[in-house]
Structure formats: C-alpha cells, structure tokens
Specification:
globular, binds magnesium ion, 7-stranded mixed beta sheet, binds NADP nicotinamide-adenine-dinucleotide phosphate, alpha/beta, 20% strand
C-alpha cells in the first residue's frame, strides 16, 4: 500500500467555483445568502484545510425555499407535458455528460473520494437520468370495473405529491442527489434539497447547472446549513409533502417524529451492517477482491458496505492471506491523486470514531491483522485511516454489530449454510448482503434466508435503477429505482364518473 500526494490540477470551472468567497443558497433560481447572514465552513478531508464557506440556512431560509417550491409546483411547471419533462431530463443528461469532470473534481475536494473513482460514477449517473427520463412518460393509472348500479365509470389517476424535502448525506452526494432530482423532474413535483454540510458543493453546483439547462426557477432549491437547523426545519415543515432521507438511523427517527406535523410521506434509507458470505466452493479470484472492495470502497463510507465477511471455516486461512495480499495493491491517497483507490474519511469526528472502533475490536479480543492506524507522512494532515482487517471476529462483538462507516473488514468464520444465515440475520439492520458460491442451491438458500433489502450473488454492489435497491429492518423503507420509486412521488386519486 503506497501513499502519494495531490497531483492533479483542477480544471478552470472547478477552480472558479471553489474560489468563491461564499457559497450562497439556491432559491427560486437565484443565489442568495442566508437571512441570518451566518456561514459555516467545510474542509477538504485530504488536507484538513478549509475548503469553502457555506450559507448557514435556518428556518427563515427553509420557509422561503418551500414557498418558492410551492409556487413553482402550482405554476407553469404544472402544465409541462410528460414529453417536455422527459426532454428536460434528456437535456440535463447531455449537459452533465459534458460537465462531469468539473463536478467530479468539486466532489473529490469536498468529500475526499478519489477523482478517478468519481469519474467512474459518470456511467451510473447517465443510467439514472435515462431511467428517470423513461419514467416521465410511463406514469399511468387504471380503468377499473365496479359494482355500482347505473352507468358509472371508475378509474385511478396518478398525480405528483407536491413539494419534496430531500435530505442528503455526504458519502456520495454527486450521484445520490439524482435519486431525488430525477424523480422530482419525472413526476412534476418540486423540491428543496438540504445537502450535508460536509458535501454541499456538488449539490449547489448541480442546481445552478440544471437551472441553466432549463429547470424552471423554484423547481429545485438548495438550502445548506446544519441538519439540526435547516434539516429539521425542512423535515418539520407543514408545507412539505414528502421527505426523502438518506443518512443514519438515529436521524431517521427524528425525521419520522418531525413528519407527524402534517403526516408527511417518507422514504428512509438508513444504516447497514451487511454480511458478505463466502463459501469454501467460491471462486476466490473473484470473491477476494469483491469482498474486500465491498468494504473498502469509498473508504468504507457506503451504507451497504459488506463489513461482516463470513468465511466458511476450511478456507479462512487462505481467504485471509489473499485479502491481505489484495490490500497490498490498494493505493491510499489525496482525492486528486489520479492513482489513488481510496481516499480519506470525511472528517476528524469520523476519523476518531473509526479509530475508536478499532480499539474496541482489539479490547473485545478480535485479532488485528492489518492496518489500525491513522496514516502519516504526506497524508498526516488529512483524515486517512489505513484499511484495516480483523480476524477471529464473533457476532457478539461491537465491531460486528454496529455500523463503523470506515475501512474496517471483520472476518467471521462459519461452518454451514444454516449458521451463515443465522449470523447474517442476527443484526438490527437489513440493507445489503452477498453470497459467494459456485453451488446454485447454496446461493439460493442463502439469498432466500437472509433478511435484507438487497442481495448480490458472486458480485457486490451493483445498483441499476431498473432493478432497484431496497432496505428492511432498521435500514429503512422505500425503494430506490423501479416504478416503485416513482410511485412514492405520486399519489393515487380514485375517480367515479356518473354518466
Ligand atoms: P446523518 O447525520 O444522519 O446526516 C444525514 C443528513 O441529515 C445530513 O444532510 C445532515 O445534515 C442531516 N441531518 C442531521 N440531523 C438532522 C435532523 N435532526 N433533522 C434533519 N436532518 C438532519 O448521517 P451522516 O453522518 O451524514 O451519514 C452517515 C450515515 O448515513 C451512516 O449511518 C450511513 O449508513 C447512512 N447512510 C445510508 C445510506 C443509505 O442509502 N441507506 C446512504 C448513505 C449513508 P448535516 O450533516 O449538515 O448536519
Ligand atoms: Mg466537505
């Protein structure tokens, strides 16, 4: 594992954007400061240095943005045909295809993911936009039979829910904001987005670019600011019809409480502690890098990271050796280091959390096989943690039960299918999971037995909007992708027509 310094110069557009003295809110097609005049700072996690000053939005700003979104929802935007909304999404895809490098650089500086990895996410974004463009022209109700005497025609109509509050986490904002934006534009809703303070910049920049590309004023608004103030104001706002939230289970609970004000509809994507189950008959050439990157990708800051790697007992030694050898090929570095596979974690607090869990694991009796420390040298000012592997982990240990959200892989031995399923299910979360086996019966038994919203077989982490991504248990509810996703941006009207 080697470390290298920043070596990529920023493009002119990214540089111009990042050199702004302050980043304002984006409301009703305009960049405006917070009414309080207050700002927050956010750092570059690769260097620990202040990167940007954000408007500290609060209740008054959320009120303004929600009003703009409501007016847009009821105004000219409501007359756009499905074909016009589809055309807009197609145009947006073309513009973002051209501007993606700028956005990837802004995101890399803001949240620390290697720019090379972010570039790789462009194809996924293009797929999402083309999925939502197709959904814009696929909204339909039903004509229904009825038992009413006389000549009564009955049907259902679908209509956009209204103003959406979108609360976005920091760990992948560049793409994940489009789960909300895409559905909003396809359905005819409008939105107020509250990005995480740690990664607001790509969301602000996207709002500006989309406005230039033809999104009408008020349809997409962005209010930056702390979760406790701006986020809570949005979740509790009586004029917001629905909230889409991705983040921690704890914050999810407070969003549910806040939603009772006007019985908001919710989509909640929360934490995870996914089990990645490797059987002795697995193709280890694929299972080893698959399981390792299932944890280490994005420095472990992925909700569906397969952090509990269950390995069948006869191959524990071989699997472990091969994972450690694979780790020698990973480069940890500055997010603008073109050759880096892994970047830093998001901030000092997250760094301390991860190191604290590594201490807890050692105190609980797990065997620290690799990593375990903050990286120094050229990277000493950034929030870099060595990719870490624990062996001999049991499912009772806190490192196996709690979400760490860092590059920490726990190897847990098991004997047979039943035990693997039991261990996988002995957790409060139910987000992702995988099974690696060349025996189709084994794979089927595991994928049917594990209580989780998404399962992969002989692969990890694919997400396609046509297939979707789900959670259950403490990982939340509400699909991402498929027509089920669109359905939550629409409501159903039952219609009775006496002729
Ligand atoms: P978080 O603290 O829950 O924050 C998520 C978002 O909610 C941020 O925009 C945050 O704003 C805002 N927020 C915080 N407190 C709020 C409140 N009381 N009311 C309204 N909004 C509030 O989570 P995080 O630390 O950013 O992200 C890590 C967690 O998210 C992990 O547990 C991870 O598993 C989960 N996650 C889940 C998924 C998924 O798809 N299921 C995806 C990514 C992350 P500020 O940060 O600006 O305060
Ligand atoms: Mg940041």
């Amino acid at each position: 594992m080697t470390t290298t310094q920043q070596n990529l110069p920023l493009c002119e557009q990214a540089q111009g954007f990042l050199s702004r003295e302050a980043h304002h809110l984006f409301i009703d097609g305009q960049r405006v400061p917070a009414e309080s005049g207050q700002t927050l700072t956010t750092a570059n996690p690769s260097t620990g240095q202040v990167l940007a000053r954000l408007a500290a939005g609060g209740q008054a700003d959320v009120d303004r943005a929600v009003l703009a979104a409501r007016r847009a929802f009821e105004g000219q935007w409501s007359t756009w045909t499905p074909y016009e909304r589809q055309g807009l999404l197609t145009r947006i895809a073309q513009v973002l295809d051209e501007r993606f490098e700028e956005l990837a650089q802004i995101e890399a500086m803001d949240m620390g993911a290697p720019v090379s990895k972010l570039r790789g996410a462009k194809a996924a974004l293009m797929k999402m936009l083309s999925f939502f463009a197709s959904q814009a022209t696929s909204i339909s109700g039903e004509t229904l039979m009825n038992g009413i005497p006389g000549n009564v025609t009955t049907m259902t109509l679908k209509a956009p829910v209204g103003v959406i509050g979108g609360i976005i986490p920091w760990n992948g904002a560049l793409n994940s904001q489009f789960w909300i934006i895409g559905a909003v534009l396809a359905s005819g809703c409008t939105a107020v987005l509250k990005p995480a303070t740690e990664a607001s910049l790509s969301v602000l920049r996207v709002a500006e670019i989309l406005h230039e590309a033809g999104v009408p004023a008020g349809v997409l608004n962005v209010v930056t600011g702390s979760g406790r103030e701006a986020g809570h104001a949005l979740a509790a706002h009586p004029n917001v019809d629905r909230v889409a939230f991705t983040g921690s289970t704890q914050t999810g609970r407070s969003i549910i409480e806040a939603s009772t004000v006007n019985i908001k509809k919710l989509q909640l994507e929360l934490g995870g502690k996914s089990a990645d189950i490797v059987f002795a008959d697995a193709d280890l050439d694929k299972a080893v890098p698959g399981a390792a990157m299932g944890v280490f990708a994005n420095s472990g800051q992925i909700c569906f990271a397969g952090t509990r790697v269950l390995v069948q007992r006869p191959i524990v030694e071989e699997f472990t050796e091969r994972v450690l050898a694979f780790m020698d090929t990973l480069r940890v570095g500055h997010s603008l280091d073109d050759a880096a596979n892994l970047g830093p974690v998001i901030n000092q607090t997250q760094l301390e959390n991860v190191l604290n869990y590594i201490d807890i694991g050692q105190n609980e009796g797990a065997e620290l096989l690799r990593g375990g420390h903050r990286l120094g040298g050229e990277l000493e000012n950034g929030y870099f943690v060595q990719p870490t592997v624990f062996g001999g982990v049991t499912n009772q240990m806190r490192i196996a039960r709690e979400e760490i959200f860092g590059p920490v892989l726990s190897i847990m031995p098991f004997d047979d299918v039943e035990e693997a399923i039991a261990i996988a299910n002995d957790n409060d979360y139910g987000l992702g999971g995988a099974v690696w086996s060349q025996n189709i019966s084994t794979a089927l038994r595991v994928l049917q037995g594990v209580h989780t919203g998404t399962m992969w077989v002989n692969c990890y982490g694919y997400i396609d909007p046509l297939v979707g991504f789900n959670g259950t248990k403490l990982s939340g509810y509400g699909s991402k992708g498929t027509s089920a996703h669109m359905d939550t941006y629409l409501y159903t009207k039952s219609v009775y027509i006496q002729l």
